[in-house]
Amino acid sequence: MAKTRRAIQNQTNRTLDRGDLGALLGFAATHSEQSVCRKARAYAGGLPIDIAQAKLDLNGPNAVSETVEDPTVIRFLKCFASPFTLILLALAAISYITNVVLAPSGEQDPTTVIIIAIMVLISGIIDFVQSSRGASAAAALLQMVTATTRVRRRPINFDDFEVSHTETLHDGSVTDGASHANAATDSVPHTDAATDGASHASTGTADTSNTGSSFDKEIPFADVVVGDLVLLASGDMVPADCRVLDAKDLFVNETALTGESEPVEKFPTVVHARRRADGTRYPLSLSECTNLLFAGTTVQSGSATAVVVATGDDTYVGRMSALLRQPATKTSFDVGLASVSKVLVAFMLVMCPIVFIVNGVMKGAWLDALLFSVSVAVGITPQMLPVIVTTCLSRGATQMAKQDVIVKTPSAIQNLGAIDILCTDKTGTITADEVILERHLNVLGEEDEYVLRYAFLNSYFQTGLRNLIDSAIINATGQLTDINNLINSYTKVDEVPFDFERRRMSVVVEDITNNTHMITKGAVEEILSVCTSVNFKTHISPLTNAQRQDILRRVHDLNHEGMRVVAVAQKDNPRPVGEFGVDDEADMTLIGYLAFLDPPKASAAEAIKKLGEKGVCVKVLTGDNEGVAAAVCKKVGITVDALLLGEEVENLSEDALRKRVEQTQLFAKLSPMQKARVVEALRKNSHVVGFMGDGINDAAAMRASDVGISVDTAVDVAKESADIILLQKDLLVLERGVEEGRRTYGNTIKYIKATASSNFGNVLSVMVASILLPFLPMSALQLLLLGLAYTLTCIAIPWDTVDGSFLARPRSWDARSITGFMLWIGPVSSLFDVLTFALMFFVISPAIAGGTWTELAAAGNTTGQALFIAAFQTGWFVESMWTQTFVLHALRTEKLPFIQSRPSAALMILTVAGIAAVSVLPYLPKVSEALGLIGLPISFFGWLLALMLGYLVLISIVKTIYIRRHGSLL
Predict the structure, then answer these.
(1) Of 236, 425, 598, 800, which one is the catalytic site residue?
(2) Residue 258's pLDDT is what?
(3) Average pLDDT estimate for 69-77
(4) Which residues fall within 8 angstroms of residue 483, CB to CB, at 6 or more apart?
(5) How many whole angstroms from its chain centre is CA 675?
(6) For the chain, what is the mean pLDDT?
(7) pLDDT of res. 588
(8) What b-and-e string marks burial along 218-248, b requiring 16 or more CB atoms within 10 Å of the CB?
(9) First CA to last CA distance, the chain
(10) Is-catalytic flag, 425?
């Protein structure tokens, strides 16, 4: 057994390359059954049980690996590792040392430390909750591959098992070499699929139809190994990636992989790889692998014997799972918020040391200067930024839920509003995910109900697998005529079932006059091959080569319009008695043909138009045929000036692809990785990209995009990979979501820009006061309390209204615009702070203290000086709250505040309450004493109103100039 295990390990290293899934399956699809079986070490009667166990021991179970996550404690601590958070923690430490450790006994004040700690804790917890929701996509993949399957095994012990040298699977060549006599190196394990796939034998029950002592055994999916012969029947789930060896009418539902609803027929025949001009092969797409079965798909009908070529993480699903377990791409929101935080932190790190040094030099009290600079640092940092952002996102998620949009990842709301390119799959997104009969034409290309009636009889009376085409024919007939009359006028006599060699099926019916009619429908070429005449409006004439070419030309034109064409033929009284068969499908008369279409959704064109009006360009990325996709694009208003096929995407360099994706609206015949590559190229061109899909083949592209969008009817992996799920598979719903995303971003950026600019103005004011005043313009506690009062009023911002003009185009984070905004608006606020300084220093404070500062200092009146300072600090404390609040209202809109654009009731109430509370604090005896504030005369508020009126006028002028120069305020 040990020898067997070592031998298999050696051959596994040589033959089953784990590095390239495309090459692995590409070899299995494009090489003969004998070659594939040699590579997989399959045996004619099934794997010997000891070799199967050795393979299982060496390669592990047939299961997709789960994500190994950090312990919860580690993940929680990582949420506090951002530079923004670390600097706030450093400030808290400094404040603790200065306000608590070094403070005189009885004067310790931990208020600053507590406030900063609360802000940091809230931010970290929010980040932890969001990240913990993250990636359960791999877990969803695991749910796809459960249960058991039937394999063929042999109870033979090959202790002398030896393996010759063979090339690796990805090499694409076959080296025969001398193989062990018992290995199926030259013979393929064919079985009678009709017998083997008909029913599952009980575990361990011998199957006398097999060679020697082979037996069929039901085993868990996890025990399946490479080289196993798997026996599949209708309803079975495919346990691993397999190559088909025998098949009978095998139809497989690959919806979980491709999102396409139509089952796919599988054959054992070799797929011929296409080659480029230089001789290299094009990578195979899923649709081209008609001889491969993929793990997690389901057999809808028929039966098959297949050899396993890949298990576990090597399967197509396993590779997709590995991709989903990789760290998520940083989205527009992540990058933007990080850049904004860096700007604010950099601003704080530059300005606060300056404040410290200036105050220390000018006042000589270095400890007070340090306390004040720490308070300034905390004050100029938007402490509520994580709370405001999260509240905006949560509110946005609630509103979007009302629009049938479920938000899984809160940051995706802003990303959705920022997208300027939406990449979408075709089927079920811009099409209705159904087949309709678009035209029923006679041989002259004219609409003719006669053709439809015969097609109806064929579809209605056939007893095989009724597909979407049959349903479309029956539905279309019911809309034009009374189908009950047709049904009652004919009696079924016999049928010749469909098969993919003939690509047609026939029914024989008898009418009320006792005449029989064979009606055949199928692929146009196959129908033409059995026709010798054509029906020209009841006039039958021989089918000429010219007519044949004319029919094929019309069919080609219909194909170019994105339609699938089926021909219809008939023959009267094919045989008087006996059983009908394939031989009767001869000397038939062509009646006409039917053109089918997966129609665009009624709302698709309107939604694409609305998205375009909002600055969102829609690009279609599909694995479907380019002709069909182009026809659909034309119907929904997407102009296809250029298209790229998957093979072209594969061959383009990164730079070349980045250029081509800008001019291309349609990408067809794409593999999942090619979809992701297109999305990445668009993002590298500075676009914010959304991707909408519903299959496993879309998961990689959704992962690569800024925001992944799926629908509630999608496969689990697509839903788990998505950030946003639509409860309606409708682009109109998405268009409403885009608008809500922009509203969310608008309210977030209001807070950041208004707060950053007013805080910058406060720092400038502090700098001026530090140079000109003999005392601090505001105490550290007052400054901290002012910042807290302002941020609490901002809690209502997420519920504020947003101007329609702001919602008209994509919006994304730009740290440079925030810096420029601060430099424009901040000095305006500072100017009125300086005017307030002058008012307080020369008018209000002297009136309250009984003299100017110079007079009080000369007289040594320390009580008067203390009163002077208290009055001054109170005046700026109140004025700062007024200016910060007014600037918030002035900057929340490009229009005239309160007149052309009204704030929400919640914001208005909260800001008025904030101003009132701060204005009242100096008149509350105990509170004012604790804060170092005093009551001001009524005349101060008259001066204050005049200052605010001037402030609003000046800020409106500056705002107008800024908009003209930069094109936008926010």
Answers:
(1) 425
(2) 66
(3) 70
(4) 456, 460, 474, 477
(5) 12
(6) 76
(7) 92
(8) bbebbbbbbbbbbbbbeebbbbbbbbbbbbb
(9) 72
(10) yes
